[in-house]
Write a structure and sequence with these properties.
Blueprint lengths: L1 H7 L7 H5 L6 H12 L8 H10 L9 H14 L5 H15 L17 H5 L15 E11 L5 E5 L10 E7 L10 H8 L5 E13 L3 E12 L10 E4 L11 H14 L1
Parallel strand pairs: 1-5
Antiparallel strand pairs: 1-3, 2-3, 2-6, 4-5
The structure holds iron/sulfur cluster.
Length: 265
């Protein structure tokens, strides 16, 4: 409101560009104000409107995707009444709120039933299509900063395909047990790594890394191999501290390197 007073002498702007630049005004509110207050042929698309249009026009685009809203806006620019945009938009909103409801649309009383393609095909309750947001997976990981008697570090290359493909990392594995209070970390490590002798130098740090679908809680431990008998796989190698920076690591493991280098200074 202050912006309207300060920049527009108290009058809400009557075009989409300026009204959309006001704080808190999204595309739906902009369209609602422009059509209802100024009777301009501007679409106001929200979930209700997308549901009605998906059904009436039998559109199967996923309404959870931003581009679907854009598509509906484009359609409405064509369809909207140029003579009475206010009534058109209010009618569409009311239809969605009172008649064409999500689970039990009142088709028998619906004023647009004759034009409704979903009703004609009997698929009104199957629309709109809305994909569910994937729940973010949480994973507990143990990462090991393994050193040998020469002061070298063990690193390994991730597989050629999949998440963070071909980047380098410290040896790590998933674990479920970190939730419990007393985890026998040495036992966890022995289960995963076949080493004859090692000395656990204890926990180093905890690192969190968030991907769009996944969150890693990485518990980092430092380990010293006592015998040089550790059999390396083809993707693993020992490197000197100064060489580590020649390898591309994912952000989460770069944090481990930073901490490690700090400690060694
Ligand atoms: S006929 Fe049924 S599905 Fe079609 S718009 Fe009307 S209430 Fe919605």
């Amino acid at each position: 409101m202050r912006e309207v007073v300060e920049h527009y002498e108290g009058v809400v702007p009557n075009n989409r560009k300026e009204i959309s630049a006001l704080k808190g005004v999204g595309p739906y509110t902009a369209g609602a104000i422009l059509s209802i207050a100024y009777d301009l042929p501007e679409p106001a698309v929200d979930g209700n409107v997308m549901r009605v249009l998906s059904r009436v026009l039998l559109i199967k685009d996923d309404i959870a995707k931003p581009k679907t809203r854009t598509r509906f806006e484009a359609i409405l620019y064509e369809l909207i009444s140029k003579k009475n945009a206010s009534f058109f938009n209010q009618g569409l909103m009311e239809l969605g709120a009172l008649v064409c409801t999500p689970t039990s649309p009142g088709c028998l009383l619906c004023p647009v039933r004759e034009h409704c393609r979903a009703y004609e095909q009997g698929v009104q309750t199957e629309l709109p299509i809305k994909s569910k947001k994937k729940k973010q997976q949480q994973k507990n990981m143990i990462a090991l900063v393994i050193k040998n008697e020469l002061g070298e570090f063990l690193i390994e290359k991730r597989p050629d395909k999949g998440l963070l493909a071909r980047l380098w990392q410290f040896v790590n594995f998933e674990t479920e047990k970190l939730e419990q209070e007393k985890v026998n970390i040495e036992k966890e490590i022995s289960n995963f790594l076949k080493i004859d002798g090692f000395e656990s130098l204890g926990p180093l740090q905890e690192v969190e890394h968030v991907f769009s679908h996944l969150k890693w809680h990485i518990h980092v431990y430092e380990l010293k191999v006592l015998s040089a008998e550790l059999e390396l796989s083809t993707s693993q190698r020992w490197v000197q501290k100064q060489q580590i920076e020649d390898y591309a690591f994912p952000v989460s493991h770069q944090k481990i390197i930073e901490q490690q280098l700090k400690m060694e200074e």
